[in-house]
Amino acid sequence: MKEKENNKQMLSIPEVNARFMQVLSYYSYSGYKSSQEVEEISQAKISHVKSGRNKPGLDLITALLKKFPEVNARWLIVGEGKMLNTENDHTQSLPSETSDKLILENMRNKGVKDIQDRKILVLTEKVDKFMKELEEFKSSIKN
């Protein structure tokens, strides 16, 4: 019964939340265990992500990827690819700096210094752009 409730809850929250929670579940991490082992992750933040109240922010995504470096960042953020990287495809899961040169330069100007944070921000911006395009496409189909 409890598994059914968990599955129902996962379907009603944003997909990025479900993937975030899937990673924690895969590693048998509860909100409490996460908060004890990773400074940036609190039980309250996990609870808000799990309930769908908040999407995981850059701080949570970064902390999760640092704790579990084998997690595919592209899968976590946009749902593409497999949850875990193999040694061969680890570097392919992140955007290349050359293709995103302008975005990265813009972020450097904003004071973002950590390369992982920049790559996550690039992916987040791409997801936001994709979601806007998807909404426009849905809207055009309805009309």
Can you tell me the residue ranges where pLDDT is under 50 for at least 5 consecutive residues? 1-11, 88-100
What oligomeric state do these chains adopt?
Answer: single chain
CATH topology group of one domain: 434 Repressor (Amino-terminal Domain)
> How many DSSP H or I helices?
8
CATH architectural group of one domain: Orthogonal Bundle
* Helix/strand order: HHHHHHHH
Number of strands: 0
Report, as a whole number of angstroms, the end-to-end distance: 42 Å
CATH class of one domain: Mainly Alpha
Structural class: mainly alpha
Protein name: HTH cro/C1-type domain-containing protein
How does this model look, in words?
This is HTH cro/C1-type domain-containing protein. The chain is mostly helical and 143 residues long. The chain has a domain at 1-71: lambda repressor-like DNA-binding domains (434 Repressor (Amino-terminal Domain)), CATH 1.10.260. The protein has 8 helices and no strands. Helix 3 packs across helix 4 (43-51) and helix 7 crosses helix 8 (115-142). The radius of gyration is 16 Å and the shape is globular. The chain starts with a helix and ends with a helix.
